[in-house]
Amino acid sequence: MNYGRVLLPMSLVLLAGCQKSTVNQDLASTVDSASIKCEVSAADLSSADASGESLKIVGQSAVQSGNAVKFTLTDSGSCVNGQKVSWKAAGSSSVRTTSTGLTSVYNKAGSYVVTAQEKTTGTTDAPVVSFKTAVVSEEMMLSGPQAGFAFNNVSFSLVVPASITPSHISFDFGDATATVNDVPQATHVYFEPGVYQVKATVTEASGKVTTLSQRITIITLVDGMSCLQELAISGATEAKVKVATSLSVYIPPCLTDKIGAVRWTFGDNETGANQSVTHTYAAIGTYPVTATLYLGSSQEPWITLDHSIRVIENLVVDPEPPAPADPNSCTTQGATRESQSELYSETLACGIDGTKSVSYRDRVVEECKLVVEKLAWTEVSRTKEVTNEGPCEGQSCKLPDGSLLANGASKVLYSNAAPAGSCSTVSEQRTCNNGVLSGSSSSNQMTCHDGCGNFGSHGTVKIGVVTGETQVPLTCSFGEQGFFDVYTQISDQTCKDGSVSNSNTRQGTLKTPGQCPVYSYAPTDAFTACSADCGGKQSRIFVCRDDKGVQVDNARCQGSAMPVEERVCDGNPAAVRRQEVTTTSEEANSSKLCPKNQIGLIIKSRDVVNTKTYACIDHQVQLESNVSVPSPWVEESFCRDYVARRCSQDSLSNTEAKGRYDWMVKCQNQLPIIKDFLDNFNDVKVTLSGQQVSLGSAGRELYPTFMNFAFKPEKPWIAPKVKTAPCVMPETVYVATVCVSSCATPEQQILAQEKANGSLKYVPFIEALTKNMNFVASLQSAQSMGSKEVVKTKVDQWVTELIDTEHDILVFKMKSGRELKVTPNHPIVTSEGFMKTAAEFKAGESLVQLGGNLDPIVSITATKYFGKVYNVFVQSSAIHKNILVTNGYLNGSAYFQNAGVKDMNRSLFKQKLTSGVFSK
């Protein structure tokens, strides 16, 4: 929000372009000539009529410190002659009255109240009107009433010095209603009486955030208190160290006879009790000031007003302001008037050394008399009237012995003059609180003698108390000295002031019989020589010691056998150290590409010289290190024709594979690795289970998958699956292989044959793939499901993963005790001759063994498997030739996950394979 630099009464006020005037200059020169005139706007007249007040002050509600402020008095829109007006401008640095009003200069920031009263000649005072002006220097000020009525409007404004530019303002009224933001004047209605904290949060153009707050007390509407919102503290918010500052509470006319007392706190542990006060601060800082008002003679606080004073170092002495115009002049000799003074307080004695604060107002009668050839109001009588009497405070307390204890002081008294324990157990610190002694009335003893705990109270005497022990020497076998019998020592005891004293001390009964030393063999840290270089034995050396551990001549231990203790040791470990050297070979992949139309690896191989060093470790000859030193790599090509892989890490549908192919064609001129792949494999066509598959074909798609060697180990890089994707690929990505589907774990047994003239046998899938076995066993015909006869079917491709990944695996456990581990989408023959996926089976159903026997399923357990899974394509699309034998059970080849997926769960399948096979 952009705030303009204007002066708005009772609104957001930004003071800009204001230059401080010099106090010593003529004040007329510091005020615009236009503002000297008594001008009343239509808005001011409308306001006066609406409020029912004809007499009002017109002036500025906010000003920069050091500037002159013009105030005029109007009566129903007409200017009141300045010579008939009595003005008061407390806190002003310079005051000047003219026929048009009052001009004041405020050098210090603060909140000031100016009052005006028409001079009258009758006995009744004319009404007093007021005007509040907020003065700022370097800091912002939140301006608004500190008291108001429920269901009535109250308005708040922010006064901003010229040096600050706000960009955002938020008003929070403290009653959980919504904040008001970025308005020139925040007006609010409170619906519940209470004390609320109003906050204005200001964000400056520089980003600095400042929060200002003030308290407002809301009460229920009371007749005769319509001027409540005018209650205010008038005075500066700035002061100097050790320089007196003046403050006063402006009490508007409708409350003058209702306020009985004003009591101040100055924030430095000092207090005051008059309507107008003067206070001097001893140290710099910011002090919270409060003025609490009391109604009539009530002792309960009514409304508390807040003020704050920032005290700075006293470096420059402020000039004394000029004396104001004489307010006591009058015009009609003999006229009288009656008035009330400000509230003031006296401190009176009460109770025992106590004091109380009593507040007064003087009712003053004055008469207009000729004084030294000049008419002036002269006091003829003054009546002192009590408005509020505070409680008696600070009274002393009378102690049990008749002495006095000062208010706030403490004294330790006792409930027992001679307790069994210490006096502290019966003591109580009693404090004088305004004439009342705290604590228990039973604590009324002034003095106390400490007792001796369980022994008894002061003066207790006991006879024959054990107080210590004495020693009687023993005679030992080897003439040892220093061994004694121990006897008790007894005394007569007396308790005196907490201490037990002994008398008549003597020897008592035997307490502890003495004992001469006992000797035995004890181990040392020394051993005999080791019996072998590695893993030998040695014996510990023992010596004779007494029962205190002191070594003595072994002759004293002749009555006992010396212990035997052995341990394993190494006499000469270096003598058994040796080395064994062996040579092995290892392989690694090469970064070179295979020839066109081939996928595979160019392997690097090398010899590795392995040196094992054996040493004596933990008392045994063991392997200490195993160092391998490789020879230079030698490349060996293992490129071969295309073999499809299953790519769980990058599994695509036909639509996604076609989308990837279209993306590669679009991006091949921007990505050289894509162009190389398309050039080398664009004309490759592969037959899988009788179906021709190629890149970008109309039927089933081949598609490449990618790896990123920037990671160790390498990670898959998932290429886009739509043509519209951007042509972006990391430089470390390469084409790893092409992909199809598969589903068995590596240890599952498949009936396969390696060579044409060989024989079928059960081998693990991983062995069948590694050896690239040429044949697998399948059903002999569409009617051979109940026969154990099988035929050899040519393998088209063995299929596995490119990399190890995590798979969901189903573990079938059968009644026969056999197992089958497959992925959930692996095709398996049912007892009814259907082909369905492993995930569709349930415990209680049966799998079909080779020969047609049914093996009931006991349980199916889901588990996780990290590694590769396997399957196979055969060179046939005939259904019976795609039924293979895994772990002895009939299940489907990869055909049923690809081209043959249409044959899953078809009734035609049962008619071809199972007619008459299973007995009912």
UniProtKB/TrEMBL annotation:
<dbReference type="Pfam" id="PF18911">
    <property type="entry name" value="PKD_4"/>
</dbReference>
<feature type="domain" description="PKD">
    <location>
        <begin position="165"/>
        <end position="225"/>
    </location>
</feature>
<dbReference type="InterPro" id="IPR036844">
    <property type="entry name" value="Hint_dom_sf"/>
</dbReference>
<dbReference type="InterPro" id="IPR036383">
    <property type="entry name" value="TSP1_rpt_sf"/>
</dbReference>
<dbReference type="InterPro" id="IPR035986">
    <property type="entry name" value="PKD_dom_sf"/>
</dbReference>
<protein>
    <submittedName>
        <fullName>PKD domain-containing protein</fullName>
    </submittedName>
</protein>
<dbReference type="InterPro" id="IPR013783">
    <property type="entry name" value="Ig-like_fold"/>
</dbReference>
<dbReference type="InterPro" id="IPR006141">
    <property type="entry name" value="Intein_N"/>
</dbReference>
<dbReference type="InterPro" id="IPR000601">
    <property type="entry name" value="PKD_dom"/>
</dbReference>
<dbReference type="InterPro" id="IPR022409">
    <property type="entry name" value="PKD/Chitinase_dom"/>
</dbReference>
<feature type="domain" description="PKD">
    <location>
        <begin position="263"/>
        <end position="293"/>
    </location>
</feature>
